[in-house]
Amino acid sequence: MTEKVEEERLPVSEKVKVLRFQTLFKGGRWWAAAGLFEAFGRKHIALYLWHRRGDAWKRRQKFVFRSKDEWEKAKKAIESLAAEL
Known about the structure:
Nuclear Transport Factor 2, Chain: A
């Protein structure tokens, strides 16, 4: 994982302010990132997946955590599943 600040802009709406992000993976056609964002005066964490169409990145998936409680529930579920990998 790599953390970028100004080197690379995430292809998100102009209404969303990117506070920090980390690219999870990026290839010729797919790009996934996790980040801390602010929109409409509220902070949230989101996981994004984009697909390259021509010269543009188009969002395919977005998953948002709006509170620490939401994050803890997801983290617990994922960690229990990851133990079986």
